[in-house]
Write a structure and sequence with these properties.
With 90 residues, this protein is of the alpha+beta class. It has two helices and six strands, in the order H-E-E-H-E-E-E-E. It is globular, with a radius of gyration of 13 Å. It starts with a helix and ends with a strand.
Length: 90
């Protein structure tokens, strides 16, 4: 799905949070949640910056990360009470 189509889906489905999932340098899956109201085309183009020191792999190095959303992997999460979207990130 193209990013503009997914952004429309987020709005139409009244999604509250977008959960960006990625694998850290140790091979463990991590995630960061972004409020849907601030999730824009920029998250696909430039990524969502976050402090990597919060993950075990980044603690020692003070790493800063940017999770780049992947619209092709975006889905509505059926297992949450609030409507949430999940997407792989690079």
């Amino acid at each position: 799905m193209h990013p503009p189509m997914w952004l429309k889906t987020i709005k139409d489905k009244d999604v509250k949070f977008v959960d960006l999932r990625f694998t850290d340098t140790r091979g463990k899956e991590q995630h960061v949640q972004v409020p849907a109201k601030v999730f824009t085309q920029d998250k696909f183009d430039n990524g969502h910056a976050f402090d990597g020191r919060l993950s075990p792999a980044g603690r020692d190095r003070g790493v800063r990360h940017a999770a780049l959303a992947d619209a092709d992997s975006a889905r509505i999460d059926p297992f949450t009470e609030e409507t949430r979207s999940t997407s792989r990130a690079t």
